[in-house]
């Protein structure tokens, strides 16, 4: 395969950069959005929660659509839709319209998200995928780092609406690059499981809504979601090649362990961010810029370490780097938690943040590579959709549980932070246990 594979990766990275930039750029502008459009805190919450809900739920369907209609087409359709939705967000006349347009953004992002794993699998041989995923990790960390900075600059110098409008030219460039550089395919002739799509969409919608809202209806909604998803599971087991989600992959120790470790990684990284920022700013009196600098080593270290970590995966396989990465994750939570619980100098959190960046760099590439290594090419989209769904639901669950603990123990902040970091630490340790069950290189079978 010639140099065009790196051009294809560059086109994928351009779109992925826009997607991740938007997840971190909005939080900085939240006060300005509320001052301009009005609305209470609950409405402002749903500007982000609505996006998360729309992004998380359709991932299974989007992955399967990539198998059926070519992941390149679905990816470019999602990128174009993301650009249009971003323009509409910038034009929103009220908080209600902004929430609606953010939901459109989330749907477009869901169409994009599962396709890159499938396309990287197509572009790169097994012994090069670690390097590709390593570069991917660097770009992800860069977008995470630049999002708050760019959001602050645009909001301060222009207007909050520009945090959305800046996406439009970036999406246009990504679409042009994708059309020219990403290889296409004819897609699959298998049938689309409409009933499975309905069951999974309804079940995941209820589950994610219950996790995000924490209303009196959350418990019955979670129970109903569980029933629908159990029906979906048993239906998919009998669908064979037509399955929306190839749940049979969970018989593979590599795919199952990688999925659980990735869910732990997603939950831990997102769940620790809110309590850390609250502690640094509300308890220790740091300003927004100082607080951002405390966690900046996370992204900086991830940017620097992701490419060499990816090359290491290509040389030795994914198991050892993944175990190291998940162990670093647990260590980072221990360090940050000790600083918070023992009321040490908040700048010591930067040490834990550096460990967190190393964990992201070491774990993301091997977990993604191992998960996709045993997948047949025709089922790669469904497998990627399932992998991304587990990761996203894990992340939403982590954030929801953390928020609930902080709310329940609001009058006792010291205890609240201790319980939060204890919970997050247990999740990280669970990720280490999952990584220890990953197969060695010789036991990961490449689908053909």
From TrEMBL:
Gene3D superfamilies to which the protein is assigned, alphabetical: MFS general substrate transporter like domains, Multidrug resistance protein D
Keywords associated with the record: Cell membrane, Membrane, Sugar transport, Transmembrane, Transmembrane helix, Transport
Sequence ranges assigned to domain Major facilitator superfamily (MFS) profile in this UniProt record: 8-443
Gene Ontology MF terms: transmembrane transporter activity
Designated name of the protein: Sugar transporter
Subcellular location: Cell membrane
Membrane protein topology class: Multi-pass membrane protein
Main location, first listed in the record: membrane
The species this protein was found in: Amycolatopsis lurida NRRL 2430
CDD domains to which the protein is assigned, alphabetical: MFS_MMR_MDR_like (cd17321)
TM spans (from-to): 43-62, 74-93, 132-156, 162-182, 217-234, 255-279, 291-310, 322-341, 347-372, 393-409, 415-436
First and last residue of the signal peptide: none
Cellular compartments per GO CC: plasma membrane
Classification of source organism: Bacteria, Bacillati, Actinomycetota, Actinomycetes, Pseudonocardiales
The keyword Cell membrane appears for this protein: yes
InterPro entries: MFS, MFS_dom, MFS_trans_sf
